[in-house]
Amino acid sequence: MGRMSGKVAVVTGAAQGLGLAYAECIAKEGGRVVVTDVANTTAAVEAIKAAGGEAIGITADVTSDDSLNAMVEQVEKEFGPIEVLINNASIFASLVLKPFTDIPYDEWDAVMRVNVRGPMQATKAVLPSMQKVGRGKVINISSGTMLRGAPMFLHYVSSKGAIIAQTRSISREVAQHNIQVNSIIVGLTESKGVKEHEQLSKLKAPTLAMRAIQREMLPEDLNGTMLMLATEDSDFITGQSINVDGGAMNQ
């Protein structure tokens, strides 16, 4: 039996990239995974099923209560109550690095709406489902950019700093329901979005030079931490943020 056997897990923004990597890992460990995204999830679900996993895909907008509530209703009907939520959906790879003085306010608001409000809305939507089973794990995805104050990316960096505060605050509100809320602070990873982003690709060399572990960070490097936070291994851990970056922030 896998570490996620019998658990129903929702991963937002999982049509590709790191979200898909989390979903594939959960399915490999025996979980019943729900791939959600505003993009088409068909290819992601087919890939998981082809590898022997159990998955469904649902189009869901993390900034819409109606969309999220419909997603929860469908998941409970097909798989049962939700026990794990990974708040991965965010605006990232589509952003162009620029001075904060050049960031349009509508772009700032869009990043905050998806990256900060989105995880709160998704957590709010799945809370009643977790209460039905008397337990739950919420994993919020932050970014190492906020630890070092990465320039030219202020809206994204600010949004990921807010995730740490949100993790700490919500963890105290839901602890009474046996729900743990934690965050993974993700270093620059060789995801599809980073590989295809010319500006982000240029950051790989200086980032690698900062690391104690001198190699590129791969999506699967996050799976161990994710599984620990998604299982009983973390039943007495909540409100915490774990930095996974190969030791870059040790310096």
Key structural traits:
251 residues; Rossmann fold; 10 helices; alpha/beta; single chain
What does this protein structure show overall?
By secondary structure, this protein is α/β, with parallel strands linked by helices. It has a single domain (8-250), classed as Rossmann fold, CATH 3.40.50. It is built from ten helices and seven strands. It has helices at 17-28, 42-50, 65-78, 105-133, 145-148, 154-174, 192-195, 198-201, 204-210, 223-230; strands at residues 8-12, 32-37, 54-59, 84-87, 136-143, 179-186, 241-244. It has a seven-stranded parallel β-sheet, sandwiched between helices. α3 (65-78) packs parallel to α4 and α4 runs parallel beside α6 (154-174). The chain is globular, with a radius of gyration of 17 Å.
